[in-house]
């Protein structure tokens, strides 16, 4: 790649206007099985990994990568079979996300809200809305996200308003942490009416009054472009307005959101541990007191890698278990099955958070001083883990898990559980 070509690539946190991405000219590939989804994820990960450090360092938006990702069919894998999708297990979906995240966690996070919104369509939309929105997903259309508020008192306090005007609704508000919106085809907006009832308004990315701003400046997950959205008198047909009812009764909505979060963290840990091992084998020097010829023969390094690998495998096992519990809750949503899925996913989230932080921190201790050189950009793993694991506090996971097992109290139902 030439220096000129490098400079011309669109970057995150840029004041330059960023036009909506073209809609797909051909339908995305239709994945037929869980095994095919895993195989395609590995193939894409091999493509995404080589420039992951470069994209992070330079802030390059993963435009071609996201196009390839959604056209591969992976963005449609949780569309139910009854609507033409593969309807894979959520254990498979979690593994797909972890595979992509190990290669580039920013790319994995860009798809995160899309998968959640596809699930919400299945849980809350009308039959006609399911036919339309699932159909768009299978064609390769990407959902973004305009969920979190910029100035509200907490994550569940929504100030963006929706008002009915005949066959349309008008939406006004401002959003932040809008991961996926910049590169999406449709921006689902969470808004409330005068009574405080919540809705998801599926607005086309190029709708007048909808402005996606490329102003994400986090020190990690840099190329997610998780900036802000202005919503000024945005008009959308009522047929694109889906009520948020999934948390008013037992449903798998919460654990579905959480299992994707956990999968991204598991992938960060997986990628960082692989880079640690590779660096120790190829570049690190043995410590003088070890008496060994290579860093990989250091007994303390060997033991530490073993410990980290065990922790990662434990987190991955809980992640797979959580996926099966989500599947069970989807098949038969009761207080018991949903609580089991919520707690099981929380357990996975605790371990994936812990191992992501631990692996990305110990990388430098084990690989040595030269691993801190900017040319390697290995610090991106820690930065990504630290940023992404802030999504919801693990300290509350311990409480809800303990309260469930000790006192028989089911955790609250919301997107952060």
From TrEMBL:
One of its GO terms (molecular function) is flavin adenine dinucleotide binding. It holds the Pfam family Acyl-CoA_dh_2. GO terms for biological process: L-leucine catabolic process. Keywords: Oxidoreductase. Residues 1-21 are annotated as: Disordered. The lineage of its organism: Bacteria, Pseudomonadati, Pseudomonadota, Betaproteobacteria, Burkholderiales. Gene3D superfamilies: Acyl-CoA dehydrogenase/oxidase, N-terminal domain (1.10.540.10), Butyryl-CoA Dehydrogenase, subunit A, domain 2 (2.40.110.10), Butyryl-CoA Dehydrogenase, subunit A, domain 3 (1.20.140.10). Residues 45-138 form the Acyl-CoA dehydrogenase/oxidase N-terminal domain. PANTHER family: ACYL-COA DEHYDROGENASE, ISOVALERYL-COA DEHYDROGENASE, MITOCHONDRIAL-RELATED. This is Acyl-CoA dehydrogenase, type 2, C-terminal domain protein. Residues 260-392 form the Acyl-CoA dehydrogenase C-terminal domain. NCBIfam families: sulfur_SfnB.
């Amino acid at each position: 790649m030439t220096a000129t070509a490098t400079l011309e690539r669109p970057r995150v946190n840029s004041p330059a206007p960023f036009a909506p991405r073209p809609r797909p000219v051909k339908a995305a590939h239709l994945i037929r099985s869980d095994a095919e989804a895993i195989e395609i994820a590995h193939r894409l990960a091999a493509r995404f990994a080589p420039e992951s450090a470069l994209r992070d360092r330079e802030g390059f938006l993963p435009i071609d990568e996201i196009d390839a990702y959604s056209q591969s069919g992976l963005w449609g894998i949780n569309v139910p079979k009854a609507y033409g999708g593969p309807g894979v297990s959520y254990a498979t979906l979690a593994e797909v996300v972890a595979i992509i995240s190990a290669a580039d966690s920013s790319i994995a996070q860009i798809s995160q809200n899309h998968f959640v919104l596809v699930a919400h369509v299945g849980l809350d939309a009308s039959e006609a809305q399911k036919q339309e929105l699932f159909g768009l997903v299978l064609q390769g259309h990407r959902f973004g996200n305009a969920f979190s508020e910029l100035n509200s008192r907490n994550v569940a306090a929504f100030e963006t308003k929706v008002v009915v005007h005949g066959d349309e609704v008008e939406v006004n508000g401002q959003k932040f942490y809008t991961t996926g919106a910049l590169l999406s085809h449709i921006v689902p907006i969470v808004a409330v009416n005068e009574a405080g009832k919540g809705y998801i308004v599926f607005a086309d990315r190029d709708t007048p009054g909808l402005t996606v701003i490329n102003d994400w400046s986090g020190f990690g997950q840099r190329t997610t472009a998780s900036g802000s959205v202005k919503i000024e008198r945005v008009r959308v047909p009522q047929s694109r307005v889906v009520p948020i009812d999934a948390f008013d009764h037992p449903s798998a909505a919460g654990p579905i959101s959480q299992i994707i979060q956990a999968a991204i963290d598991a992938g960060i840990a997986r990628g960082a541990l692989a880079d640690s091992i590779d660096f120790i084998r190829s570049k690190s020097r043995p410590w003088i007191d070890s008496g060994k010829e290579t860093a990989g023969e250091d007994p303390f390094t060997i033991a530490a890698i073993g410990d980290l690998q065990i922790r990662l495998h434990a987190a991955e096992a809980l992640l797979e278990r959580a996926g099966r519990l989500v599947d069970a809750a989807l098949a038969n949503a009761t207080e018991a099955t949903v609580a089991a899925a919520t707690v099981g996913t929380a357990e996975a989230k605790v371990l994936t958070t812990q191992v992501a932080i631990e692996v990305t921190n110990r990388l430098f201790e084990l690989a040595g001083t030269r691993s801190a050189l900017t040319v390697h950009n290995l610090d991106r793993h820690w930065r990504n883990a630290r940023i992404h694991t802030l999504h919801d506090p693990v300290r509350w996971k311990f409480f809800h898990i303990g309260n469930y097992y000790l006192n028989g109290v089911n955790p609250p139902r919301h997107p952060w559980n």
